[in-house]
Amino acid sequence: MISLVQVSKRFDDVHVLDAVDWTVKKGSVFGLVGPNGAGKSTILRLISGVLTPDAGEVLLDGTPVFDNPENKQRILFLADEPFYLHQATMDEMKEFYRIFYPSFSEANYEQLCKNFPVARDKKINTFSKGMKRQVGLILALSLNPDVLLLDESFDGLDPVMRLALKRFIAKELETRDMTVIISSHNLRELEDICDQIALIDSRKIVMSGDVDNIKGEFHKFQVGYDTSVDASIFNAINVIHLEQVGNVFTIVTKGNIEATKQAIADSNPVLLNELPLNLEEIFVYEMEARGYGKSV
C-alpha cells in the first residue's frame, strides 16, 4: 500500500502540494488527473523517491520510500521524457537496468520486444518520440515492479500500441498484485484501464475513489417545461453545470440520483431525460465548478 501522509512540497516560491493525504491500495490501477501544473508529476516523483517531501511522509507498506534502496527497487517511475544513456541501444539500457532491479524478467523483455516492434540494436537517440516511449515501456514492464508509475505514458503511442500496453498491464494484474498509477490528460484511456481515479486541484487530492462510484455521483439531465421558467427552479439541486435553450435545460448534477430526480419531478417538467456521462465530461464539469477554465 502507498500512503501520502500530510505531504507538502514547494519549489522555491511555488507551493505545489499542501498537506496531501492519499492512500493507494495494493493491486489498484489508479488514474491521477488534474489541470496543468496541479502537481501530478510531483506526486509520482515523491512516490518513486526521486523527490523528498518538505513535510509529511511517503510510505510503501508502512516504510519510507526516500533514501530506502529496498523500496526503490520495487518501484519503477517512467517519466514523461524518459532518460537514456547517451548513444545507448535498448539492449544496452536493458543491461543497465538489470544492475539496479534484480526483479528484471528476460522472458517479459523478449515478449515485449515481439509486441512492440523496436530495433533493439539501434541508438535510442535516433528514435521518434513515440518509439522512445515504447522503449521506456518495454524496459519498465520487464522489471516486474511492485509499483509502476506512468507519467503521460500513452502520449505518442499509436492506437495499436496503446491497446498492447493495456493488455500487458491487465495480464500482469491477473498474475500478481502490481500497483499502477497513471498520470494522464486522456481520461478516455484511463476509463478503459483504471478501477480507481483521483483528482488533484489547488494543491490537494480533492476527489479519490472507485471509478464506478464516482461516475455514480454525477448525473446529466435534459429538462423541459411548457411555460417560461427561470434557472432558479433548480436551486434545491446541486447543479454544477447548466445550459438553457428556451424552456429546455441541460443540467449536470452531483449527489443522490433518486433525490435529484424527485426534486426535478417536483418542478413539473414536461420533459425529463437522463443523458449518458463519461469520465472526461465529469472531469470537465467538476473543474468548471471549481472555476478552472470557465468562460467569462
Q: Can you describe this structure?
A:
With 296 residues, the chain is of the alpha/beta class. It has two domains: 2-213, P-loop containing nucleotide triphosphate hydrolases (Rossmann fold), CATH 3.40.50; 218-289, Alpha-Beta Plaits, CATH 3.30.70. Helix content is 33%, strand content 29%. It is built from ten helices and 14 strands. The chain has a six-stranded mixed beta sheet with strand order 6-7-8-3-9-10, sandwiched between helices. Helix 4 (106-115) packs antiparallel against helix 5. The longest helix has 17 residues, at 159-175. It is elongated and about 75 Å long. It starts with a strand and ends in a 7-residue tail after the last helix. The model has no long low-confidence stretch (mean pLDDT 88).
Quickly list its features.
single chain; 296 residues; alpha/beta; Rossmann fold; Alpha-Beta Plaits; 2 domains; four-stranded antiparallel sheet; 10 helices; 14 strands
List the helices and strands and how they pair.
Blueprint: E1 2-11, E2 14-24, E3 29-33, H1 40-48, E4 55-60, E5 63-64, H2 69-72, E6 75-78, H3 90-100, H4 106-115, H5 129-142, E7 147-151, H6 159-175, E8 179-183, H7 187-193, E9 196-201, E10 204-210, H8 211-215, E11 218-224, E12 239-245, E13 248-254, H9 257-265, E14 271-275, H10 279-289
Parallel strand pairs: 3-8, 3-9, 6-7, 7-8
Antiparallel strand pairs: 1-2, 1-4, 4-5, 9-10, 11-13, 11-14, 12-13
Brief synopsis:
The protein has 296 residues and is α/β, with parallel strands linked by helices.
